[in-house]
Specification:
Length: 243
């Protein structure tokens, strides 16, 4: 069986270097969740990673069940948000999704699933878990994510004690592949290397509202949760199950 994405080193590099996405998305998501906060209900976060968005949600007063497929990410989340209601493994699309008053997820966790069929299955599981009056807020990479990056073949970032280099490819219109190498400084000053390949499935996000509607959730696709500017090809799906 394939190891989960985001082993220890890449999880730490994500935590140290990629918090900007949660910083961007948090204000819009907090606004969407305002009615949920008023009811004191519990928020389920999927693909919570190291807890970067979770931190915002808990600071705003939400009770959050933060979940992810990567044990290494969850270890970091336990340090980032020790005051979350729960931090636990939930691997989509097959793990049971607890009934929730709100379900949120950023960083396109569902695009990590094997194929479009699995991604649809995860969306249906989330829709079915949403209680009446509940709010859904997710981001997803569209097919446009790949077409917008056909000419971008590599990239890299460097921090104080870490670095990452990545090779990108779009082998077919519905696949986005990143081959990433991380470097982290050990306590004795030496550096260690690790490698991960991430295969993302890209979908026509425009068809998601019809799928969710079949399961009682009214949703719209957008380019932002609030006023933030998100990368080209990333879509937001914001939905609600009527009372
Ligand atoms: C790009 S990271 C985003 C993490 C975090 N939401 C953030 O914005 O910092 C994508 C996350 O999706 C998680 N993920 C990947 N496949 C998953 C699956 N099948 N079920 C649940 N989470 C998954 C990864 O472990 C990772 O934490």
């Amino acid at each position: 069986m394939q190891q989960p994405y985001y082993q220890q080193d890449l999880a730490l590099v994500h935590h140290l270097g990629y918090g900007f996405h949660a910083d961007l998305c948090a204000p819009g998501i907090l606004e969407l969740l305002r009615p949920v906060l008023a009811r004191g209900s519990e928020v389920l976060e999927i693909g919570c990673g190291s807890g970067l968005l979770t931190r915002y949600l808990v600071d705003a007063g939400h009770r959050v069940r933060a979940t992810d497929a990567s044990p290494a990410m969850l270890d970091l989340a336990r340090e980032t948000v020790p005051d979350a209601e729960a931090i636990e493994v939930l691997v989509l699309p097959d793990d049971p999704v607890p009934p929730s008053d709100a379900i949120v997820g950023i960083g396109h966790a569902l695009n990590y699933l094997h194929d479009a069929e699995s991604l649809d299955r995860a969306l249906v599981a989330l829709a079915n878990a949403l209680k009446p009056g509940g709010v859904l807020a997710l981001d997803l990479c569209d097919i446009e994510w790949g077409t917008a990056r056909l000419d971008v073949t590599n990239g890299g970032r460097v921090g104080e004690d870490w670095a990452i280099v990545a090779l990108f490819s779009v082998p077919t219109p519905d696949r986005y592949v990143r081959e990433m190498t991380t470097f982290l400084r050990n306590d004795d000053g030496t550096w260690r290397r690790d490698d991960e390949r991430h295969d993302n499935v890209l979908i026509d996000v425009g068809r998601v509202p019809a799928l969710l509607a079949e399961h009682g959730v009214e949703a719209v696709v957008g380019h932002a949760f609030g006023n933030e500017e998100l990368p080209v090809g990333l879509r937001t799906v914001v939905g609600r199950r009527p009372e």
